[in-house]
Design brief:
Number of strands: 0
Number of domains: 1
Number of helices: 7
Order of helices and strands: HHHHHHH
Shape: globular
Distance between the termini: 63 Å
Structural class: mainly alpha
């Protein structure tokens, strides 16, 4: 199949292959959670990993033309910036160093990046429904069902994350007073 596509599409397929590999590694996020190294709810992390795997393997892998949209780029930017900040915060925290700026980023960029990421993800799933219908009708039905579940599910995740962030901020505030 790759020998029939143009140079532009070949580069797109290679980029998607890299994204599939990186996103699949996200399954390993459960290791620090289960070991207690990182405090985060395993249910919300599982939902995040599952949604990213769905978008990368189920949507973009099957419909690579969707990867040429601005919405795809906004989704990747939201994911990437979130992860860079999250892991910078965790690494610095584990080393005993907590710069105020990184802490501020950890607890504030979420309020912008989460809605950008979720709305981009929903839009990508929505845009995949029609090409899925043309390929396999049942796959389009599955995407519609996922979209119907996705929005309330992500609102639940948002509530858990906001509560978790508020608790984290409270711990930071009270521990800095001592």
């Amino acid at each position: 199949m790759l020998h029939r596509v143009s140079g532009l599409h070949l580069r797109l397929h290679v980029r998607i292959a890299h994204l599939r590999l990186i996103t699949s590694w996200a399954i390993s996020l459960h290791l620090p959670l289960s070991s207690g190294l990182v405090r985060a709810p395993i249910s919300t992390t599982s939902m995040q990993v599952a949604s990213r795997l769905l978008l990368v393997w189920g949507v973009v892998n099957n419909f690579p033309d969707l990867a040429e949209s601005v919405v795809y780029s906004s989704m990747l930017v939201a994911w990437s910036v979130t992860e860079v900040i999250r892991y910078s915060y965790f690494v610095l925290n584990l080393s005993g160093y907590q710069p105020a700026f990184v802490t501020w980023l950890r607890y504030n960029t979420f309020f912008v990046l989460y809605p950008v990421g979720i709305s981009s993800e929903c839009w990508m799933i929505y845009k995949a429904i029609e090409p899925a219908r043309q390929a396999i009708r049942e796959f389009a039905w599955a995407l519609q069902l996922i979209l119907l579940i996705y929005i309330p599910g992500q609102c639940s995740v948002l509530r858990v994350r906001i509560c978790g962030m508020a608790n984290g901020l409270q711990v930071l505030i009270f521990s800095s007073r001592i």
